[in-house]
Amino acid sequence: MSKTNTLTTAKGERIAIVAGLRTPFAKQATAFHGVPAVDLGKMVVNELLQKHEVDPTIIDQLVFGQVVQMPEAPNIAREIVLGTGMNVHTDAYSVSRACATSFQSTANVAESIMAGISDVGIAGGADSSSVAPVGVSKKLARTLVDLTKAKTAGQKFGLIRQLGLKDLLPVSPAVAEYSTGISMGQTAEQMAKTYQISRADQDELAHRSHTLAAKNWKEGNLAGEVMAAHPEPHKTFIDQDNCFRENSTLEGYAKLRPVFDRKHGSVTAANSTPLTDGGAAVLMMREGRAKELGYKPLGYIKSFAFAAIDVWQDMLMGPSHATPLALKRAGMELADLDLIEMHEAFAAQALANMKMFASDKFAKEHLSHLRNKAIGEIDMSKFNVMGGSIAYGHPFAATGARLITQTLNELNRRGGGVGLTTACAAGGLGAAMILETD
């Protein structure tokens, strides 16, 4: 491998990931039922600080995100600062890049360190699918505003009379793209058909994911990066994900019917990620500052890249667009990587991206500004070696930080190396981040 590139400050110091931690990931309406994302965020950041004996007042910046927004707490990052004992003057702001949100927050903290704005920062994300904002119809919302302006009882009664029963019904959070009306599951079905991903292959990947996750939990490989959570009213605790199947059998997957295209589809609940609650965070420092404080970093950021593609067709191909750019910026090829961690939103999406990594035709048609040859075929002995999101679950804003922490810990268990983390995201977005260990 020729000389590679690594992100550094102006003085040549690398951007260190000192530590990472997450809550257990819990299926919707189970262990974290009723726990809002802001509390999950405070929970994991507070534990991260305590576990690694970090003085909260040394944190210069906290960047955090959530995808399912809470109207009553629109800046989750600031609420976390105020709820975890950090200096009240700590800079904090929130970001959202759909399923790549904590990749974005990590990139933002890295950029602040590179620019000399901060020395120590925390990045991450949290989401709750159990505490989702339930809205009202547009007509009711408009009427409620008009009622505040009405001056007489007659005017108010007239406004109320215009409402029908259907206008009073609650409106669930949208699951489809605002711009297209197409859901993630429908997009996964598109991709299965476009790239000829069979139902059998999807089920096999899902089975592999659950089997590897169960194996790594059993062997204790996740214990150090997953905290024990005691959600209110603190009568119970959870210290392990509850999404993965401990006794997954391939035959079991074939029994489920398709969800998004019931007649001709192949995407099922079993080969997709479940709705999940959880939070994750990473502690980041300028390399020299980490040494001054006596910390041995988990690893460092070599490069990162984001990409955007069309949203009407196969919009979850983001990893196939962001990864080549991250590799170019790192001065590396796919074969140079020791581990590859790809977010499994759906088995169809993951398999389609894996297939296009190896496609010269795809490279010529979509990556000509970067290269005209495929980045290469993925060595499955390097791919999602501990299982993926299909097994662990996917609290939207937390997944990026999970991937970063999990990859660095596994690289260190293997004696060091370089790993790719990558994810698709709603809106036709993609993220890729290359990490290294000493």
UniProtKB/TrEMBL annotation:
It comes from the Bacteria. InterPro entries: Ac-CoA_C-AcTrfase_FadI, Thiolase, Thiolase-like, Thiolase_AS, Thiolase_C, Thiolase_CS, Thiolase_N. PROSITE patterns: THIOLASE_2, THIOLASE_3. Its EC number is 2.3.1.16. It is found in: Cytoplasm. One of its GO terms (biological process) is fatty acid beta-oxidation. Residues 15-287 form the Thiolase N-terminal domain. Residues 295-436 form the Thiolase C-terminal domain. Keywords: Acyltransferase, Cytoplasm, Fatty acid metabolism, Lipid degradation, Lipid metabolism, Transferase. GO terms for molecular function: acetyl-CoA C-acyltransferase activity. It is an enzyme of class 2 (transferase). It catalyses: an acyl-CoA + acetyl-CoA = a 3-oxoacyl-CoA + CoA. Its main location: cytoplasm. The active site is at C99 (acyl-thioester intermediate), H394 (proton acceptor), C424 (proton acceptor). Pathway: Lipid metabolism; fatty acid beta-oxidation. GO terms for cellular component: cytosol. Heterotetramer of two alpha chains (FadJ) and two beta chains (FadI). Catalyzes the final step of fatty acid oxidation in which acetyl-CoA is released and the CoA ester of a fatty acid two carbons shorter is formed. Belongs to the thiolase-like superfamily. Thiolase family. NCBIfam families: AcCoA-C-Actrans, FadI, PRK08963.1. This is 3-ketoacyl-CoA thiolase.
